[in-house]
Structure formats: structure tokens, C-alpha cells
Amino acid sequence: MSSPVYLVLGAGPGLGLAVARRFAQGGHLATLTTRLQEEADPLARTLSEEGYAAEGLAVDLTDPDDVARVVATVGERHGRIDVLHFNPSAWREKNVFELTVPELLEDVALGAGALLPAVQAALPHLHAGARVLVTGSAAADKPSPAAPSLGVQKAAVRNLVTSLDATLRERGVRAVAVQINGVLGKEGPFSPPPIAEAMWSAVSRPDDDWTPHVAYDG
């Protein structure tokens, strides 16, 4: 068998890179995807220069077909996907008097809906013991009045994880949303490294101790 594969959709230089690094430290090949190839390459190069196996790919998370294509490509290339990490969200600073229905649906399609084609494409490559990991947020319970679509995204994706976990468990695969109950920062308990450690711990649990939702309170 090849090395385990960690695939993150919606990577960035902060939390996304930190979580990828943590899984790389655990022996995974880290595959980081961003909207543009020129954004993904530096992230992968950072990990490679630190001595880890990493690669970068571009994906349009607003296009279900492209999501499916990229996930399937990774699975077929390596023969497995051990951790599928869904990390995107859309921040739209429009309050409930300004936000339109098309804008709300567009944001939810990115921050929650894109998880569906990703899991469906990954399914042939998710063996028993594989995990689906989702970055959650306190916005699911305490949405910002300035950007309510984020709260809808996070509530929706948390709900979707419940259904995914109940369905995937028949295959020996589990899904979890790690809800970050704090504001991300550069230092302290809500900085990327400790959150990355919490995500590693969440997916490393045995099935006997599994829950589809984990709260990270710092």
C-alpha cells in the first residue's frame, strides 16, 4: 500500500496549510487544493521544503463537475484517499436586508453543497478507516448579523456531516465536523497549530468513541 493520502479542498496559507502540515507529520501525502494553481503550488512547496510529501492542485469549488474531477484524479493517482478535508466557506458582508436569495444559495453551494460531489467522487477510494473532515464554525450557532450567509453555510454543512457519517459508517468510513468556537488568530489557542492538532485528534479516534461533531473551545 502507498502512503496514506490527505486531501484538503479550500486550502489557504493559514489553517489549511497548518492542518495539511499536521497530517504530513503523521505520514500522509498532503494534497492541497486552491482556486488557482499558482495559489496551490506555493503551499505544496512550503511543505516539500520542510521535508514532507506534498502536491498542489487547482479546483473550482463552485463547479460540482470540477470538484468531482479533481477528487477522482487524486484517488485514481494514489489509489486511496484516507482523509478528505472540506475547508471552504464564503464571507459575504451583506446583512439580511441586503442579502439576496441567489447570493445566499451561491454561498451555501460553496460552503456546504460542494461537499456532496467531493464525497461522491472520493467514495471508490475511501477504504475502511478513512475519514471525512469538515471545518466547522461557531457561526453555525452564533451567526454574524453582518454576514448571515456564513452561519447558514456552517449550520448546513454540520447537518450534512450528520447524514454523511450515518451513511458512510456502513463502509467503515466516518465523518466529523470540528466546530471552532472562537476567532482565528495568529497566536494562542485559536491559532492554526492547536486547531490543526484538534483536527488530527478528531479523525484519529476509534469508531467506538466516534461522534460526528467535535467542539474546539480552545
UniProtKB/TrEMBL annotation:
SUPFAM superfamilies found in the cross-reference section: NAD(P)-binding Rossmann-fold domains
Transmembrane region(s): none
Pfam families linked: adh_short
Gene3D superfamilies: NAD(P)-binding Rossmann-like Domain (3.40.50.720)
UniProt keyword annotation of Iron present: no
Keywords carried by this UniProt record: Oxidoreductase
This protein's record includes keyword Oxidoreductase: yes
InterPro entries in UniProt: NAD(P)-bd_dom_sf (IPR036291), SDR_fam (IPR002347)
Family membership: Belongs to the short-chain dehydrogenases/reductases (SDR) family.
PANTHER family: 5-KETO-D-GLUCONATE 5-REDUCTASE (PTHR43669), ALCOHOL DEHYDROGENASE, PUTATIVE (AFU_ORTHOLOGUE AFUA_3G03445)-RELATED (PTHR43669:SF3)
Name of protein: SDR family oxidoreductase
